[in-house]
Amino acid sequence: MSTTIIYLAYLVASCLFILGIKGLTRPRTAVRGNQLSALGMFIAVVVTLFDQSILSYEWIIAGVLLGGTIGAVMATKIQVTSMPQMVAMLNGFGGGASLFIALANFIDPQSATHTVALVSIAATVIIGAVTLSGSFVAFAKLQELISGNPIKVPGNKVLNALLLISAIGLAIAIVMDPSNTNLIYALVAVSLVLGLLLVVPIGGADMPVVIALLNSYSGIAAATTGFITGNTVLIISGSLVGASGIILTQIMCKAMNRSLFNVLFGVMAEGGETIDADEVYAGKVTSSSPEEVAMLLETAERVVIVPGYGLAMAQAQHAVRELASIMEARGTQVLYAIHPVAGRMPGHMNVLLAEAEVPYEQLIEMDEINPQFEQTDVAIVIGANDVTNPMAREDKGSPIYGMPILNVDKAKTVVVVKRSLSPGFAGLPNPLFAMDNTLMLFGDGKKAIVELTQSLKEAD
Amino acid sequence: MEILLLLTLFVVAVFLGVEMITKVPPTLHTPLMSGSNAISGISLVGALLSAGSGGGILVNVLGFIAVVLATINVVGGYMVTNRMLAMFKRK
């Protein structure tokens, strides 16, 4: 097939990717958008198979079959609660693929050896390897194979700086002397370690930012791969993904009132004095029972449910939906307040609730729901901690000061479903639990909600 | 000259991406992320060219690994996005 036809097909594929992302701007058109994008991918792959520079197909067929099977199994088996792990891993594979393409092009004697190609190869190796190892650390943290807490590495900043400098040094050496293959292997090693050390110190609460950033890296790696051989479709689609990741990273950082720099280098705002949990809670926490809360819900006209990651952990999304149906059947208005960083990746909570068939019209974003809490009879907080902590609004010395939160404390009554008074990811006590209008419903999220639903049913 | 054209393409695509993605509502951020992640599997195109180039066994093996990883990324990414979006679609 002539190069002209291949490149025209690449143009069509690029347009389909753009239309695909455009479709994702509305729930109504999103499925179609995703299908258009998949069609673009199909076209790009099929025409590439006709490229004259492809001499043998054995390796290609074997690779596509193996990768396709693994991908399909992963996508069908994965639980919705584990979606962030899955995306983290796929990002890693995307980065890894670019890394191996760069290596193959470097070793191939037929491949381009001019300066632009060499610079692109070095850049792809660095970004691809960082994405690969960084994503696997993110995966391990989310899967709780390793602790989700920030892990302190002594001298981390200095070490990372040194690794980055040596990576750039090696990259320059490779461009100057491409005949020395040891240099590129050294670059792979240094970059893999850099990816590891970049993500290890970042805590679980910052994972939405990390995943968004790694998503961006996997796109940029694909784009730099395109520069090696001058492939337009790789450049266009890679930069689209790179841009999308950067934007999401920015949105997540804003939602946490953190700068990207602070997230990457594990800096939490320095708290003044450590806040003593006993002092905050002592004698002021009111414990409640499902029966008592059910009585409150019976008379409530407007209830706002505030889901947090604890809901996902307890797999309570279906139970919550059930409770909401009972309330709605009784004429109560039920809404869900969604904090941008509730969950482990951008918009994760929306997907969890969508799985439980909560209509998306009922999912209200933070800025829109906050002024409405004052007219809310009952706010039910399930497994959300830091995103409802009033310290973020009031306590200037607090490490989370300035982070936008859901103003649940403004509701007439707040019910907090939680196992214990243990702190959330930020490690802070939550004065909300000790407020006069707050009732604590201790217990497993799912069990508590089921009992609550039962009590409410019996009231009829 | 060619490198300048490619660079232009890169920069224009970045701007286009930024413009489009800021319009995606938070509800769809997770599908957007896994969908765009699937698009980054476009490196499959580069992987196919390497795996089948006949540039020696090492090149083929490296290309093969790249094909496997990129295909997992593409197939897994699109399927999981589709699964998520199906949840939003109903009614």
From TrEMBL, chain A:
<feature type="transmembrane region" description="Helical">
    <location>
        <begin position="158"/>
        <end position="176"/>
    </location>
</feature>
<dbReference type="GO" id="GO:0008750">
    <property type="term" value="F:proton-translocating NAD(P)+ transhydrogenase activity"/>
</dbReference>
<keyword id="KW-0520">NAD</keyword>
<feature type="transmembrane region" description="Helical">
    <location>
        <begin position="234"/>
        <end position="253"/>
    </location>
</feature>
<dbReference type="GO" id="GO:0016491">
    <property type="term" value="F:oxidoreductase activity"/>
</dbReference>
<comment type="subunit">
    <text>Heterodimer of an alpha and a beta chain.</text>
</comment>
<keyword id="KW-1278">Translocase</keyword>
<protein>
    <recommendedName>
        <fullName>NAD(P) transhydrogenase subunit beta</fullName>
        <ecNumber>7.1.1.1</ecNumber>
    </recommendedName>
</protein>
<feature type="transmembrane region" description="Helical">
    <location>
        <begin position="113"/>
        <end position="137"/>
    </location>
</feature>
<dbReference type="InterPro" id="IPR012136">
    <property type="entry name" value="NADH_DH_b"/>
</dbReference>
<comment type="similarity">
    <text>Belongs to the PNT beta subunit family.</text>
</comment>
<keyword id="KW-0812">Transmembrane</keyword>
<keyword id="KW-0997">Cell inner membrane</keyword>
<keyword id="KW-0560">Oxidoreductase</keyword>
<dbReference type="GO" id="GO:0005886">
    <property type="term" value="C:plasma membrane"/>
</dbReference>
<feature type="transmembrane region" description="Helical">
    <location>
        <begin position="59"/>
        <end position="76"/>
    </location>
</feature>
<feature type="transmembrane region" description="Helical">
    <location>
        <begin position="6"/>
        <end position="24"/>
    </location>
</feature>
<dbReference type="Pfam" id="PF02233">
    <property type="entry name" value="PNTB"/>
</dbReference>
<feature type="domain" description="NADP transhydrogenase beta-like">
    <location>
        <begin position="8"/>
        <end position="454"/>
    </location>
</feature>
<comment type="function">
    <text>The transhydrogenation between NADH and NADP is coupled to respiration and ATP hydrolysis and functions as a proton pump across the membrane.</text>
</comment>
<feature type="transmembrane region" description="Helical">
    <location>
        <begin position="182"/>
        <end position="202"/>
    </location>
</feature>
<keyword id="KW-0472">Membrane</keyword>
TrEMBL record, chain B:
<dbReference type="Pfam" id="PF12769">
    <property type="entry name" value="PNTB_4TM"/>
</dbReference>
<keyword id="KW-1003">Cell membrane</keyword>
<feature type="domain" description="NAD(P) transhydrogenase alpha subunit C-terminal">
    <location>
        <begin position="7"/>
        <end position="90"/>
    </location>
</feature>
<keyword id="KW-0520">NAD</keyword>
<keyword id="KW-0997">Cell inner membrane</keyword>
<dbReference type="GO" id="GO:0050661">
    <property type="term" value="F:NADP binding"/>
</dbReference>
<protein>
    <recommendedName>
        <fullName>proton-translocating NAD(P)(+) transhydrogenase</fullName>
        <ecNumber>7.1.1.1</ecNumber>
    </recommendedName>
</protein>
<keyword id="KW-0812">Transmembrane</keyword>
<dbReference type="InterPro" id="IPR024605">
    <property type="entry name" value="NADP_transhyd_a_C"/>
</dbReference>
<keyword id="KW-0521">NADP</keyword>
<dbReference type="GO" id="GO:0008750">
    <property type="term" value="F:proton-translocating NAD(P)+ transhydrogenase activity"/>
</dbReference>
<comment type="function">
    <text>The transhydrogenation between NADH and NADP is coupled to respiration and ATP hydrolysis and functions as a proton pump across the membrane.</text>
</comment>
<keyword id="KW-0472">Membrane</keyword>
<dbReference type="GO" id="GO:0005886">
    <property type="term" value="C:plasma membrane"/>
</dbReference>
<keyword id="KW-1278">Translocase</keyword>
<keyword id="KW-1133">Transmembrane helix</keyword>
<feature type="transmembrane region" description="Helical">
    <location>
        <begin position="57"/>
        <end position="81"/>
    </location>
</feature>
<dbReference type="GO" id="GO:0006740">
    <property type="term" value="P:NADPH regeneration"/>
</dbReference>
